[in-house]
């Protein structure tokens, strides 16, 4: 198999592995692609090992973003149940409010300026406020919120470890480059310090004593020759 074919197979395999996106329903693949592009431009991976670490960084960061969004989403999803609990607590009956409540929440999240006012008016009819309702919903999701925080912390830790491993690898490469550069300089110095030709008659040639004798010459490593 030619080297060109091996290189093509390598690129194909790398793209296949890196192209797998951990996208859930409701998530936009374009957002994941944007995150990958931003991290890649910031890190500028140089080889496959660094690319795999970039993938770990992006996937961990994506998980953190997802979990943050889920914390808010689970709170909103619990609002109808929280309203029912508050109404029962005040001795009121629970009419068919689930659909209207959810519709108002969706409109509020979509940025409809009138949706919040309608939502608050609906709650006010039953002696409730938006602040009390959200607080009640948070109370009912507090265990799930706590679990989500721990999952987010674990994702943060994975991301930070990937960054640390990337820095460790690059630090090793830099050290190796410095060592190789030092060896090249030593080799050049040894060539430059090679012994010049000696003159006969104890170093006194036609130009006089400026011709060095063998004992004045130095070996390539800087040692005096006998």
Describe what this molecule looks like in 3D.
- This protein has 226 residues and is mostly helical.
- The protein is elongated.
- It has helices at residues 3-18, 29-43, 48-77, 79-89, 98-109, 113-125, 130-192.
Descriptive key words:
about 230 residues; mainly alpha; 7 helices; about 0% strand; disordered C terminus
How many domains, in number, for the residues? 1
The total of helices stands at 7
Q: How much is the average pLDDT? A: 78
Query: Terminal Cα separation, in Å?
Result: 57 Å
Low-confidence stretches: 202-226
Q: Short description, anyone?
A:
With 226 residues, the chain is an all-alpha fold. The protein has seven helices and no strands.
Topology:
Elements: H1 3-18, H2 29-43, H3 48-77, H4 79-89, H5 98-109, H6 113-125, H7 130-192
Helix pairs in contact: 2-3, 3-7, 4-7, 5-6
